[in-house]
Amino acid sequence: MLFAVCNFGQEWEYAKIRAKTPYKAFSHHELDAEIEVKIGLRSVNITLKNETIYTGTDGDQVNYNERFSWVWEQGRQGFGPQAGHFNRDFREAQVRGTPLPILWIAEYFTFDGEGIRFGRNYRIAGWYTHILLWTAFPLWVISNLVFFSVLWYGACVLMLTGTCLIAGALVYASVRNFIPLEIPFYHGDELAVIRMHYGWCYWMNLVNGSC
């Protein structure tokens, strides 16, 4: 089960801040909100939530979640029909009027030039890690079957299983963008920066492979 949990889990990287930010473009109204970003192997999930009532024209309490997927194509530059899955999702979110802080974060993953290729590198890291995790699963099944016949062979296959899991964690850490993802917001007069850290999916996969 841990193979599937780590493979499809949405918290390989994680960040959470509190910021004061406009809810929509060209609006003077701001909300004091909690912003949470979770990066998985297949997508990025962004949550915007405030505990107080939003003081804009609609007067709603904000509890908004958006998921942008990159499975598994890069596509052409831009946001047209031949663009990648992520860029098309981003354009649809713009058309729907998704809150500005979510679009601000998601836009960082659409850049694809010079050293700023967050979306491309996270997609490639997720692709290779996902392959290694799926390779580990049949090896684990084989090791359980072989244990009934020859204990030594079962142990060898189980070591291969752990090697694939550890390799997945190392590949993910190596292939993701070499420039750390940092997204600035403000909370009053103080700078509040989203800085990604490895989440429980990453550490669970690494510990599972080591054991």
TrEMBL record:
Pfam families (UniProt xref): DuoxA
Location(s) in or outside the cell: Membrane
GO CC list: endoplasmic reticulum membrane
PANTHER family from the UniProt entry: DOXA1 FACTOR-RELATED (PTHR31158:SF1), DUAL OXIDASE 2 (PTHR31158)
Protein name: Uncharacterized protein
Membrane topology: Multi-pass membrane protein
Record-annotated membrane-spanning stretches: 127-146, 152-173
UniProt keyword Lyase, yes or no: no
Coiled-coil blocks: none
Keywords associated with the record: Glycoprotein, Membrane, Transmembrane, Transmembrane helix
Organism: Haemaphysalis longicornis (Bush tick)
GO terms under biological process: protein transport
